[in-house]
Amino acid sequence: MSEYVPDERTVKSEYILEVKNLKKYFPADRGLFGRVKHFVHAVDDVTFEIKHGESLGLVGESGCGKTTTGKVIVALEVPTDGEIILDGIGIEEYAVDGFKEYHRKVQMIFQDPYESLNPRMTVFDIIAEPLNIHGIGNLKEREEKVAELLQEVGLTPPSSFMWRYPHELSGGQRQRVAIARALVLNPTFVVADEPTSMLDVSVRTGVMELMMKLREIHNMSYLYITHDLAVARYMCERIAVMYLGKIVELAETEELLKNPIHPYTKALLTAVPVPDPEYKKGEPDIMGSVSKPVDPPPRCRFYDRCPIRTERCAKEDHPPLKEVAPDHFVSCYEVSE
Amino acid sequence: MPVLSVRDLVMHYKTKMGYVKAVDGISFDLNAGESLGIVGESGCGKTSVSMTILRLLPDNAEFRGGHVYFNDGSGEVDLVTLPEDEMRKYRWKGISMIFQAAMNSLNPVYRVGDQIVEAILNHYPDTTIDEARKKVAELFELVGLDPKRMDQYPHQYSGGMKQRAVIALALSCDPKVIIADEPTTALDVIVQDKILKEMKKIQKKLNMAMIYISHDIAVIAEVSDKIAVMYAGKFVELADSITIFKRPRHPYTFGLMSSFPSITGEKKKLFTIPGEPPNLLNPPKGCRFAPRCFNATEKCRREDPPFLEIEPDHYLACWNPVKREGEEK
Ligand SMILES: Nc1ncnc2c1ncn2[C@@H]1O[C@H](COP(=O)(O)OP(=O)(O)OP(=O)(O)O)[C@@H](O)[C@H]1O
Ligand SMILES: Nc1ncnc2c1ncn2[C@@H]1O[C@H](COP(=O)(O)OP(=O)(O)OP(=O)(O)O)[C@@H](O)[C@H]1O
Ligand code: SF4
Ligand SMILES: [Mg+2]
Ligand SMILES: [Mg+2]
Predict the structure, then answer these.
(1) Are B95 and B53 spatial neighbours (Cβ–Cβ below 8 Å)?
(2) What is the CATH number of domain B4-224?
(3) Under an 8 A CB cutoff, do B261 and A67 touch?
(4) Which residue intervals of chain B bear CATH 3.40.50.300?
(5) Model-level pTM?
(6) What is the predicted pLDDT for the residue at B123?
């Protein structure tokens, strides 16, 4: 089935994806009557690029805006402000065909496989649907393709999974169906939102190897959202750390893990659990516990919880991302100046 | 005296292609104040075990036998024998559950805070709404949610926020046992660390028992007193956590424990257990792990090894276990 490879790509830009000053605000009020007065600043002026064939890891606090960033990129949410450019072409230009072409190139693996799979479709229908929509292959070819993917994500034998419904699958099995569906068209860019969060090491390794293999063959790129830094280490060339709607640190993976600079990144690395019941982990150096993204005051977003804050951090607006070492960007007054 | 005593639990799912043997003879004891971790491959039956205990099974599930003895101090009851309306009294207040799927607990059309208020009012009818809302605000703080967002709907929450709301709900009625099914998959490590610590505190305070189901061995190492390793619908090893981590005897446990990806040190080659995950419609004869086992013998492929206590509080199902250091066999 040579049609599966939608290559013949004429690369238009150095980057597969450019995100410029992206903002997404949600109304936070009950909002039944009258004007909305308060907003959740889910994504608040975020800028990054991803090269062809590159994977960028996106990590950060639960609720900091990772999924929202992903949804805006795949055109499921309309940005409040900012630009999304896919391979040199602004996302708005894809609106002409209702984003059909865009969704052939760009896919999202959703965070919650209990909510994202259509309960009335069989595993086969779910995975083959994108092939259907784009008129690729005949029935037999589609069955072969689906079986091949099921095998590769460890749902074996494929014949025993193909005709089941999502409610007849375990959490991690659903997650793998969602992955197979997103990859079936060989997209050029995938937003993978915690794609392996329910998988044990052994099964997860197989899935990550598949994602890496497809990346090699098709020169794909990923925005890989994860809480698992060991996974990010394996999958991603660079990692961006997000806190309350802002990217606070961005660097090459090994550099970030060895030499974290932002106080939030440091706290995050200290809190990584260690698989040893006798090991006593350090306390992450972070204050308070609840972060509040509703109408954040104009100062460093990490101020309330920061162990090294000074008066300046409260007086000035959120610090800009600055290059503190080659390709290592940090947004913090105390460490980046 | 255990608060929960599960014996020979068997539950299969009926499908067009035959029976999925998801729970196939599970036994364990859980004492008050104790934490049991259950680990095992995706699809091995962990969620099914908890749903069978709570009797929250889908239509195509067939309960085939076994007992679930529950004793909160007021006498032992076998939950499998209770009529549904009796059973309901034990759910949430006796045994509560943090579901792997947040949507199993949160109703999309009600505000998140109201749902927890309602749970509290149901089980503590003397509470006023204001008291209940205050308790919910406290629970929100405890799981790291902004109490101001109590009046939002589930779809306005991020994945991890929903998961935290479900944890708050499970804690709201001071249960005797909590079954937490992958409770922290959507949480960053700082929030996860905080919540696991808070749950430990509450557990101590109320002398509550916990069952943690997780694929994340590092999380299990932190929270469990003892660990059950599950493979293809059966427990294959059960012992205190240090034994499981440091001196495992089952070849599957050994494989699970011997390699983890980490963020420090050399970037190791990633670990897989050779071969394919078992087909629960038609599981391998003999030991279900035999086709993937480095120690398998003829006997393993022929006969199913029994789950036996090989030393005090250490249970194992294996014909040819991993040798201990200095041991001939
Ligand atoms: N539809 C919506 N309406 C209102 N608020 C929303 C909506 N979607 C997301 N939010 C809010 O935006 C913020 C960012 O949410 P998002 O889902 O992007 O977080 P996340 O980083 O993916 O978190 P997690 O790791 O927990 O999944 C959160 O405060 C969330 O409550
Ligand atoms: N309603 C159902 N009908 C048929 N089979 C089912 C049903 N629910 C689950 N199964 C199957 O039963 C087995 C056990 O499922 P279960 O959800 O208990 O796994 P699990 O160990 O919790 O996995 P995970 O870690 O991926 O959540 C799986 O192989 C699954 O495909
Ligand atoms: S019984 Fe045999 S096949 Fe099964 S785990 Fe033990 S050695 Fe391996
Ligand atoms: Mg998310
Ligand atoms: Mg499960």
Answers:
(1) yes
(2) 3.40.50.300
(3) no
(4) 4-224
(5) 0.94
(6) 87
